[in-house]
Amino acid sequence: MKFVNLTKKEYETLLSNTNPTNFYQDLSWLEFQSNLGHTCHILGIKDNNKVLAGAIFIEQDAILKNCTFTCPGGILIDYQNQEVLEFFLTNLKKYMKKHHAIEASFNPYIPYNDNIISTLENLKAKKIPSEIKEHSYLKTNITLDTFSRDILPQALDKINECNKYSLETISVTLNNIDSLYEIIKESNIDISLDYLTKLYETLKPLDKIEMFLTKFSYPKYIYNLEEEISVLKEENNLINNDTSSKKNFSKIVSLENKISDLKEEQSTEGKVINLGATILLKTNNAVTSYLTLSNKAFPQFDITYYLYYQGIKYAINNDFAIFNLGTVANEPLKVSFNTLNYFLMPEFILKNNKILAYLNKYHK
Q1: 41-89 pLDDT tens trace
Q2: Distance between CA atoms of 143 and 350, rounded to whole angstroms?
Q3: What is the per-residue pLDDT across 225-242, written as a single tens digit (0 to 9) for each?
Q4: Measuring CA to CA, how many Å separate 154 from each of 134, 144, 302, 316?
Q5: What local confidence, expressed as pLDDT, does residue 162 receive?
Q6: Torsions phi, psi for 48 (to 5 deg)
């Protein structure tokens, strides 16, 4: 076995044979990171010209003229094969020393497994405490009817409520990307407009990204509520049951009050507002929810479940096998497990007290 720098073609072949489950293993993510100015390394193992493992490591500046390596998509490797895993990580540490990398972080994206964890920790890989979290993905080789049937009742209620808003979802282009950025900024997420623009400019020509804005129209929603009132009044004219009549009257009053409040909001906020932002990243078989946000400037309209549903619907309708997410409104169909981020340090760093003190403080 040899530890080598893989070509893009070699890595692409490995990728196509391993059914990746997240976008960050894709070469287009390397392309984007390169456009941001980062040096990227495609590292792997070859045995008799056959590629057994591979990973994209992104180089970032650190302290004292050193750098760090990050591998957010995880290593494409058989984690059950202890010999190959040990060979990869042992040689990775040697490679890091040559490139003055003080640590390499990676996420295996595998369910917790005692044997694998033991192998990693025997090689002095350490868990990053703050990065232990649930990873969830949805197998989308189902119909929308199946998905809707198994969805959690409270989530379905929220989605149905959002359907009454008559929301409009439009694609984002460079002409309206600043509107999407405003929603991100409102949520205090550390993504700049320049970063967002480069993400779009790099990945859109490769058909690896979809960006959506979800808009809300006050006039349209008010019109729908007025139509609902008309139906209730018509029912009242046809029924003689006092209980039903009182129930309808109570609902009419409630809706009229809601319309009054909405008209006041409309005069303040404007007739059409941007309520949601969605960014989906695509590989050959999976969609990753990179960002799903309900606009925090309008807490009275929480459309988070609705936005996730739209992303899942996109994956199902476009024949993707997997939809990656942090939270999903669907327990029976999703696959979840705790995933652990690890960082690895070469021996020359383990002997440097100054850098070790910095890293220990950083990872607390």
Answers
A1: 999 999 998 999 999 999 988 777 788 899 988 899 988 898 999 999 9
A2: 52
A3: 888 888 888 877 766 555
A4: 21, 18, 13, 22
A5: 87
A6: 55, 45
Closest CA to 67 of 76, 55, 58, 75: 58
From CA 25, how far away is CA 204, in angstroms rounded? 17
Domains of the chain in start order, with CATH, are 2-132+340-362 (3.40.630.30), 137-336 (3.40.630.30)
Using alpha carbons, list the distances in angstroms from residue 65 to 58, 106, 178, 299, 321: 16, 22, 36, 45, 43
Could you say which DSSP state residue 142 is in? Answer: S
pLDDT at 112: 66
> What percent of the chain is predicted at pLDDT more than 90?
32
Distance CA 310, CA 169 (A): 9
200 membership: H or E segment, kind and range: helix 193-203
Q: How many C-beta neighbours within 10 Å does residue 249 have? A: 13
Q: 31: exposed, middle or buried (C-beta count within 10 Å: 0-12, 13-18, 19+)?
A: middle
CB-based contacts of 17, cutoff 8 Å, min separation 6: none
